[in-house]
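Schema walk-through. Below, the input block comes first and the output block second. Nothing else is stored per chain. Lengths vary across the set, and this one has 257 residues.
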Amino acid sequence: MEIKNKTILVTASAKRLGKFMATDLIKKGWKVAIHYNKSKISAEETANYLFKLGGQVSTHQADLTCNSEIEKLVNEVEALNSTWVGLINNAGYFNYDNGTNFSVEELNRHMSVNFIAPSLLTKALANYTMKIKKQKNNSQGFVINILDAKIFGLNPDYYTYTLSKQAMYGLTKMSALTYSSCLRVNGIAPGITLLAPGQDQKAFEKSHKKNLLKSSSTVEEILNTIQLIINSKSMTGHVTLLDGGAHLAPPRRDVGL
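--- output ---
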């Protein structure tokens, strides 16, 4: 794909995995729109770091549980002096509950961040791309949804989170069908990749050794898969599992517990 003066929006890209994604995309020559919610300082630090690498970056604040802020985010990205061609739905809300104690509030929050916001952003990119397509007949955009390998090897923990990621999986398939004239939509379902907040290295390594391959996904593998998706023009509606085989022999309880 020709990448000159083209922007990819990466949600939750001020830190952690999203920052790695933004950095790799900048190194590949893309422009990146960094989205954040409360991590303003981290977003500014990441943007400054990427500027020093020679990248072209913009930062955008939005609470993805608020539809009006999602609309504001879309308007800002569309107004950039470049063509919006890509969306990586990396933002995620992850909080523990189970089937007997979950609240409506937690269900709504998980669905808002992990399913509703990606749905709205995907629709916005499709509509934008259709407008661009009238000027450039070969214009095509792409969406990459960051899922969770957990949904392919279920256990009952993180109940409403898991439901929201299953909905996102359905979105990946449905939007690939619906927007095929202008978008390719794919997903990546990693296993445990980075230390969770409060998790130590020993527990992290122990969780990896529970997998069939005695390892799980790495940041490098996820970045490589993003590039594979971007460059594979025939790929749509596909989800790549990177979990060391955990989905083939899932634990009865979540590995983080």
